[in-house]
Amino acid sequence: MKDQLHNYLNRYVIFSEEEMNILFKLFEYRTFPKKEHLLVQDELCKYQFFITEGLVRSYYIDEKGDERITQFAIENWWVTNLDSYKNLSPSALFIQAIEKTTVLRISKENLELAFESIPKLERAFRIITENMLVAIQKRYEFYQKKSSKERYQQMIAALPDFSQRVPQYMIASYLEISPEYLSSLRKDI
Amino acid sequence: MKDQLHNYLNRYVIFSEEEMNILFKLFEYRTFPKKEHLLVQDELCKYQFFITEGLVRSYYIDEKGDERITQFAIENWWVTNLDSYKNLSPSALFIQAIEKTTVLRISKENLELAFESIPKLERAFRIITENMLVAIQKRYEFYQKKSSKERYQQMIAALPDFSQRVPQYMIASYLEISPEYLSSLRKDI
DNA sequence: GATTTTCATTAAGATATCTTAAGAAATACG
DNA sequence: CGTATTTCTTAAGATATCTTAATGAAAATC
């Protein structure tokens, strides 16, 4: 568990065992069974979650009462509602385990402590945040360029295991397609 | 010019005069007349641009040959193609001055030097990047939730000066609306 | 293993938005 | 100024995608 986090962070900046020991103490280990929420709407998002195992989604409920998935996250990804976390605003999003999920979570206070005691952690988080920004920009460029059908085809080609682990209507929601229309697209393929 | 950058960065982390002197030397000052490009497609984006005056857009050309605007940036904002900049990949985007624009630009090499000599700059950039991430997430949530008409109404309500400084067809492009349809929406309002 | 719940499919009708093409208005330019 | 370029509008027809509603299949639960 500690090694997993260590290996992950070492991709960006090398941390010593000792630094990792300090850092690791600031995290809490949690398990969420399938369907349990890591965060619910209107609550404050107090943590950043590093997923060590499992699969979660973040989503909101739109005006019509439908769920709209904004993100999936798996092993070795971070998930949080950054707006709520940073600005202490009530979360517009839910974060929910799709499978049994284990996480290391860190509170804002503890992450601030970590930044103070291990300054180069700032660098790691700066780079990770930049990568997330690039990823989200690419994603929306892709959505803008491609039709529903192409989005679906490329998603299952790029992430074939996802189609196994996630129900189809959730993939539809993530791709911004109605489940009925996705179903009819699949018939054509 | 130096003060403008200093004031801006002090929002995030306090820098001394001396630190600012070191940092400022690593930037270059540039002026771009209206319509000139800061970056063109297929080039490498070698800089991050801090806009000190003026207004730019970043956009790409889609399959049909139409321009699609992904971002506007004004005074005290950063603009770059982060994907190209970080990954040394040819830029899919253009960045162009809509008005006469002055910038402070910094190369990747110099920014790395700056991070090394002024480590707390990492913190400032980490926070700035987080803010950008929140902004882009909110933007796309808004696009997903709102109709074309609502997007336009809220944009001109939120940024009334923009409607003056930017031609309508560019606003349409940014809002992901065809210019003809935006024109017809305006008639209704 | 039967029952309930969740998930996927089908089909018909509705609609938001785009496309094309043309002309009008505004702005820039020699 | 007058011409050229850029920007905006109008209107008709096309289409991708959604909605609703019903049925069927699969999976979960007791």
From TrEMBL, chains A, B:
- Residues covered by the Cyclic nucleotide-binding domain: 30-112
Taxonomic superkingdom: Bacteria
Cited InterPro entries: cNMP-bd_dom, cNMP-bd_dom_sf, RmlC-like_jellyroll
Signal sequence coordinates: none
Q: Name one Pfam family in it.
A: cNMP_binding
Gene3D superfamilies assigned to the protein according to its UniProt record, in alphabetical order: Jelly Rolls
Matches recorded under CDD domains: CAP_ED (cd00038)
A GO MF label: kinase activity
Q: Where are the transmembrane segments?
A: none
Which keywords does UniProt give here?
Kinase, Transferase
- Cross-referenced SUPFAM superfamilies: cAMP-binding domain-like (SSF51206)
Q: What is this protein called?
A: cAMP-binding domain of CRP or a regulatory subunit of cAMP-dependent protein kinases
